[in-house]
Design brief:
128 residues; mainly beta; four-stranded antiparallel beta sheet; 1 helix; 8 strands; 3% helix
């Protein structure tokens, strides 16, 4: 399992429910874009700002699930790459189909998200 430290090294690991806020979700032609804010006080790597505006880009999205956190209150790592552990189980009919894809789980203040995509990036847009 990879943590956000490998996904965006300038932020480090984000801990706590108030760590990631999601403002905008755009899904078009298998491309997903998430925009919001990261609470710098909850980042493992020290930041000079209180908040970071982020943009997460996901390409060739095959699975996108989004649930309100109150409906499914379990808290997972804020941003985690499972490297297709779920999809490569012997019991899964899709086994082997998306071997090189990223299977991500993201917890924001309000939502749990699951994303299966070919590529992704986390871009810091601004700090404040």
């Amino acid at each position: 399992m990879d943590s956000i430290e490998k996904i965006n090294e300038e932020i480090g690991l984000i801990k706590g429910r108030d760590g990631i806020y999601l403002d905008t979700v755009t899904f078009e032609n298998e491309d997903l874009v998430l925009i919001g804010d990261i609470n710098c006080a909850l980042c493992s790597k020290k930041q000079n700002a209180r908040w970071l505006k982020y943009k997460m880009n996901f390409k060739r999205v095959k699975i996108f699930n989004m649930n309100e956190i109150e409906l499914f209150p379990f808290e997972i790592s804020h941003l985690r790459n499972e490297s297709n552990i779920v999809l490569n189980k012997d019991s899964n009919p899709l086994k082997g189909k998306y071997v090189n894809f990223n299977h991500l789980f993201i917890t924001t203040y309000d939502f749990n998200l699951e994303i299966l995509c070919s590529n992704f990036e986390v871009v810091i847009l601004e700090s404040r």
